[in-house]
Fold:
Amino acid sequence: DVKVTQSSRYLVKRTGEKVFLECVQDMDHENMFWYRQDPGLGLRLIYFSYDVKMKEKGDIPEGYSVSREKKERFSLILESASTNQTSMYLCACGRGAWGNTIYFGEGSWLTVV
Amino acid sequence: AQTVTQSQPEMSVQEAETVTLSCTYDTSESDYYLFWYKQPPSRQMILVIRQEAYKQQNATENRFSVNFQKAAKSFSLKISDSQLGDAAMYFCAYVSNFGNEKLTFGTGTRLTIIP
Structure:
């Protein structure tokens, strides 16, 4: 089974802090994603990476950046956390074949105070 | 841009009964995939079922089946013989053949199973 591991399940950060959310997958998948999940809004794509060092903006990239230095690791960075970034963040991966299963991590609950 | 709409924020069903979750979508493309994903409380999202738009036959996976109406752009999920473990958030999702696996999700339906 594919395993997608998000390093932190629950975080509390202060406004203005730089926040790193880490994600590691163990199946050599090409594509990795960061989604944000909010009640009533579903999942919205923040950033997508289709290869090492390659990234593409999703629907809501403002206030976020990403890093993919190794194939298995995809990091989401909040440069200066704000209270409106309090949310659940989901990492996912896929092997780059259209229509195949996307695998998700368990999610990181971030509270910004 | 593609959109996915789930008009039922919450649904409940008696254990062992059947329930149908609704999903509609909007796209101008002809080839795409549709998915239902399940997110149990405090657990990771998993794929329940998928449907390719060019396949006329509705997909089934054990107790889960879909009613895919391409012309109406409707994709509902039927859960038969509901079990307590089916309690979860259910998300409908879409990906086009140009989408490079980037899923567009609906807002979700929270399903409660009544013992």
Q: What stands out?
A: The first strand of chain A starts at residue 4 and ends at 6. Chain A has a mean pLDDT of 94. The two ends of chain A are 37 Å apart (CA to CA). Chain A touches chain B through 26 residues (CB under 8 Å).
